[in-house]
Specification:
Length: about 260
């Protein structure tokens, strides 16, 4: 068995209407590692995250989380497609945080966080509520549990979304531009929560243009362009002295 929080991608390919958007992605993430995924718009970052938690089905390759394989496994000289059961098992272990929060607007912050544990995991409501309140406190929203998203700032809503993802006790957390939709003054509070999670050993893959955050928090930086990984390595090295001209050019534009 691999340790909880390990993630391996091998040969991931994905096309839409004949256009190949992911052209063979290989990546290994160790338990507790934080990976920042960078790259220009349209390079395939969101599609890759969606393939990792199987919101999209891969065309080739596989994803391995905690030893659970989803996709196409080469075995005995042939490819074996994983089962629906394994897809469901793998998805349970992934948490995802989106740019636009995707909270249920008619539910309170507390109910947003409790919903998955109660409905999907079948947790007892009183236990789920106790844990959800603790998670809201952990993201600095102890006094906002009863509020609906519309009464919260964007930064507070994104922190509810992070608490909701954590409530499912994921092995790996995926973030797709979690601060891109926020007013600049609200970015810091969300990054602070993410920094805490990283410090507590959560395995994270973060698509972000926040280079300062990446430099400070990420172990590894991965630069994608045109559906391939152009460069990856220790975050400080890649972000300060990239070896690829394409990475350097991209960084010059976002910095
Ligand atoms: P990024 O997140 O790096 O900006 P995306 O993964 O969103 O890139 O998109 C990569 C490419 O795939 C883009 O050209 C986009 O238009 C295309 N694409 C993404 N999702 C779909 C889809 N569901 N159907 C068709 N094309 C898509
Ligand atoms: Mg995207």
């Amino acid at each position: 068995m691999s340790a909880r929080g390990s993630l391996v991608l091998r040969g991931i390919r994905k096309s839409f209407a004949g256009t190949e958007v992911l052209r063979g992605i290989d990546l290994e993430v160790a338990p507790g590692e934080v990976v920042c995924l960078l790259g220009p718009s349209g390079s395939g970052k969101s599609t890759l995250l969606r393939c990792v938690n199987h919101l999209e089905r891969v065309d080739a390759g596989f994803v391995l989380v905690d030893g659970i394989l989803v996709g196409y496994e080469p075995r005995g000289g042939r490819l074996h497609e994983s089962s629906e059961k394994d897809t469901a098992r793998l998805r349970r272990r992934m948490g995802m945080v989106f740019q636009h929060f995707n909270l249920f607007t008619h539910l309170s912050a507390l109910d947003n966080v409790m919903l998955g544990p109660v409905r999907v995991l079948g947790r007892d409501a009183a236990d789920a509520e106790r844990d959800a309140r603790a998670l809201l406190a952990r993201v600095g929203l102890k006094d906002h549990a009863g509020k609906r998203p519309g009464r919260l700032s964007g930064g507070q809503q994104q922190r509810v979304a992070i608490a909701r993802a954590l409530a499912m006790d994921p092995s790996v957390l995926l973030f797709d531009e979690p601060t891109s939709a926020l007013d600049p003054e609200l970015v810091g509070e969300v990054l602070a929560v993410m920094r805490d999670l990283a410090g507590q050993g959560m395995t994270m893959v973060v698509v972000t243009h926040e280079i300062g955050f990446a430099q400070e928090v990420a172990d590894t930086a991965v630069f994608m362009d045109g559906g391939v990984i152009v460069e990856s390595g220790p975050a400080r090295r890649v972000l300060s002295s990239p070896s690829s001209a394409r990475t350097a050019e991209f960084l010059a534009h976002v910095l």
